[in-house]
Prior knowledge:
The complex is a heterotrimer of chains A (about 350), B (about 270) and C (about 350). With about 270 residues, chain B is α/β, with parallel strands linked by helices.
Amino acid sequence: MTTPTTLNPAASSVAIVRRPKRLRSLWLLVSLAVLAGLMLASVMIGSREVSWAEIMAALGGSIDGFGPAAVATRIPRTLLAVVAGAALALSGAVMQGVTRNPLADPGILGVNVGASLAVVCGMAYFGLTSASEMIWVAIVGAGATAVFVYTIGSLGRGGSTPLKLALAGAATSAALASFVTAVVLPRNDIAEGVRSWQIGGVGGATLESIRVVAPFLLVGLIVSLLSARSLNSLALGDDLAAGLGERVAIARAAAAIGAVVLCGAITAVAGPIGFVGLVVPHACRLIVGVDHRWLLPFSAVLGAALLTGADVLGRIVARPSEIDVGIITALIGAPFFIYIVRRRKVREL
Amino acid sequence: MTLIHTLAVENLTLGYGDRTVIEGLDLVVPAGRITAIVGANACGKSTLLRSMSRLLVPRAGQVLLDGKQVHRMPAKELARTLGLLPQSPIAPEGITVADLVGRGRNPHQRMFSRWSAEDDEAVAAALDATDTASLADRSVDELSGGQRQRVWIAMALAQQTDLLLLDEPTTFLDVSHQVEVLDLLTDLNHSRGTTIVMVLHDLNLAARYADHLIALADGRVHAVGAPHEVLTEETVQAVFGLSSRVLLDPTSGRPMMLPIGRHNVSVPV
Amino acid sequence: MTLERSVADAPLLSTAQVVARGRVRRTARRRWVIAVLAALIVLGYIVSLLVGQTFYSPAEVIGVILGQDVPGASFTVGRLRLPRATLAVLAGLCFGMGGVTFQTMLRNPLASPDIIGISSGASAAAAFAIVTLSISGTAVSVLAIGAGLGVALLIYALSFKSGVLGTRLILIGIGIAAMLDSLTAYVLSRAAMWDLQEATRWLTGNLNGVSWAQTVPVLIALVVLAPVLLGQSRNLSMSQLGDDTASALGVRVERSRLILIIAAVGLIAFATAAAGPIAFVAFLAGPIAARIVGPGVSLLVPAALVGALLVLVGDFLGQFAFGTRMPVGVITGVLGAPYLIYLIIRTNRAGGSL
Lengths: 349, 269, 354
C-alpha cells in the first residue's frame, strides 16, 4: 500500500484514482467492527465486571442490582465517548482540509481554550448553569477563537503556514488561559465546577447532557459530511478550486462552521480533549487516501474507536480510580505529533 | 594584494540522509578566475558549493584549501579566506545596510574586541565597491531585489576574503539586476583578483561571464574547461537532456545556447 | 542630515564616517536605554522597600540593610520585602535574558520558552512534587530545575536530524508542552484541597513569602550563566542571519547554539523554580526591548532589564493596586496577553524575526 509522503494532498490525487474501492470498504467494515467491540468492552469493563445478563437487564430499563446500575452509568459514557471521538476527529479532518494544514487540530488552534474562556465567563459573570446555554456559549467562544487564530496565523508572506498557525494557536492559548486564570482565581464559588470541567473527560456523562448536545452535533455532522466534495477541490488551492467552479469563500466558511460547531459542542459537554482531531485524520489518510468523501466518515469511525478505547484504557490502567480521557489522548497524541514533525521535510512545514 | 589560494576537491562524496548526491568528485578551482558551476536541478551544484564552504561534512574525500582540509580549519580562520553567500540569506527585521555589511567583519573580530577604524574602513570600501554607499542608513527591508543582493555582496566583501563562493546569486532577480550583479563580480575579480565560484542556472550568462565552466550531471563532473569547450550541443544534451544549437554570441564572442523544443523551431540549416 | 548632495558639492562625510556615525548612534541609544532602565529598576526597588501596608522611612530601611536591629522594620523590610524585591529583580533578569536568547536564536519572537515546553516541564515537575510526593521548599525547586533542563535537552535531541532546525524545534516544543500540560492537569485533578492550593499558587507565578533561601540560588545562576550568554552575544547576533550565513562568517553554529540553549534554559529553570512560571515575562521582555532599543544591537542586557522591571512593577501592582492580593503571574498574564496578541499580529504581518 503506497504511503503518501508529500504534504499537499493534491499531489496524491492520482492515488485517489488508484485505490480500490473494495479495499476501502473493507477497512471501513473492519473499523466499525472494532468500534462495536470497544463499545462492548466499555460497557463491560470498569471497577466492576458485569455479565451479559446484567447488560441485557439494564438495556431493558431495569436498574436493580449493582450490575445493571453500573451498566446504566456506562452506557451514556460509552455513547458520549463514541460521539465525542467521532465529532472531534471529523472536526480535525475538516479543519485540516479547510486550512490545508497538516497540523490543524482544535486543540492546537487554541479553540479549546477559547471555548473554556467563554464557558468560564458565562459561569462567572452571567450565572449560566444549564447545559444548553453552556453549549451555545462554548460554540461561540470556539468559533471566535478559531477565526482569530486563523486570521492572525495567515498574516504576512506565505499565508497560513503550519508553523505560523501553530504558533498563533499556542500564543493565543497562552493568552486566553491567562484570562481564564484571572477570571477564576477570585471566584471560589465556580472554581470546583471549572476545574472538573477543564480536564476533559467523559466520566460525567448523562443521557440528558447527550440529548442536549445531540442537535448541535447532528447539524455539525451533516454540514461537515456535505462539504467533503468541496474539501477535495479546496485541497488543490484556492485559485485552482475556483477554476473548477467551486465557490471558495462559501465552501470554506460552511466547512469551517461545521467543524467549529462539532468541536465547540463537544468541548462544552466533555471539556477540552486534544489531539484526536490531529492524529486520527493522519492515520486515516494512510489507510483510505485523501478523498474526503471517504476520509471524513472513516475519520469519524476511527475517532470514535480511539476515544472509546482511550476511555477504557483510562479505566483499566488506574484501577480503582481512572485517568480522564483527555490526558490519555495527549499522552498518545503528542508523540505522534512529534513523529509527524520529524518525518516531514521541514521546508514543507 | 590578494594571495593565490588553491581550492581543490578530492574524491568527494556528499549526501543527505540516505541519499547520495555527489560521488567521487575531483575538482580544482583556478585561482584568481571566475568559475561557474552549471547543471540541471538537483544535480548537486548547491551541495558541492556548500561542502566547499564547510557547511556540509563530506561522507568521503576532502575539500582542500591550500592543501589543508577545510573541515579541520578553525571556523574564523577559514572565514577570513573563503566567503560564502548562500542562496536565501536572512536579514533581521529593520537592520540598516551599514549594520548588515558590518556583520561581515565578524571573522576579523575577537570575542570582546571593540570596533576599530580598520573595520569601518573595510565596511566603507565594501559599500563603495558595490555602489551602495548612498543606501548606508536605509533599512534593508525597503530595498529592491537588485539593491539587496548588492548589499549582501557588500557584506561578503567586508569579510575581505580572497575567495568568494556564491550560491545562485542571480536566481530571483530580473534580467537587468542579474547583469548588474555579474558585472559587479567581474569588477571585483579584475580589480582585486578575488577568486569567484558561483552556481548559476542560466547557461548563457554563465558562458558569458565565467572564465572557467564546470558542468555537473548526476553528481559527477561532465565537462570542465573554458566556456567554448564546455558549452557544446553534446554537453547540453547530456546534462539537461535537451537538444540545442550552440552559436557564437555576437555581443561577447562567447558561446550561446539556443534550446530546441517541439514548436516554433525552423529546420536547422 | 541626508547624503544626497549634487555632484558639484564636495561630500561632507566619507563613507567610512557615515558608517561609523550610524554605529555610534545605535550603540549610544542602547546605552541610554540601559541607563534609564537600570535607574527605573533601582527606583522601583527602593519604592518597594519603603512602601507597603506600613511605610518605613529611608533611614529605617538603610538601617536594616546595614544589619542594625530596627524595631518593626527588621522583620517587614529585612525578612519580607528585601528578599521579595530582590527575587523579583533577579527572576526578571533571568526570564528576560533567557527569553530573548531563544527568540533571537529561533528567529521568531513567538518562540518563547513559555511556549516551547520548558516552563511546562518545570511546572509539571513542581506539581508532581507538591501533590504526589508531598514535598515542598527547596526539593521542589531542585526537581523543577532538573525537569526544565531535561525537557530542553529532550526537545533538542528530538529536533536534531543532522542539525537542529528552528521550525522543527518550535513545533516539537509545542507538542511536548501540550503533553506536559495535560500531565500537570492530571496531577492537579488528583490533588487534595490544600495540596491543590499550594500547587496552584506555585503554578501562577508568585512571590508571596519568599525567603533568602529561594533568592540566593537564582543569584548564583545569574552570576554563572549570564556571563556565558554575554560572551556568546556576538554569535547570537550572527545567528540572526541564518545558519548558513553565520557559518560562513566563522561562527560554529551547532556548538554556539548548544551553549546558548543550556545557559538560557538554566537561567529560566532556576528563576521558575524560585518564583514559579511568571506568565509572559520571558515572552515579552525581548520584543519590548527590541522596540525601545532599535534594530541591529545586542538585546541581552536591555531585555534582562525590561524583564526585571516587569516583574518588579507587576508584583507591586499585584500587592497594592487591587482589593485582593493578586500573584504577580496573574498581573503579567492579564496585562501581557493583549500585548502578546498585538505582537503576534505584528510579527506575522512583518514576516517574523526579532
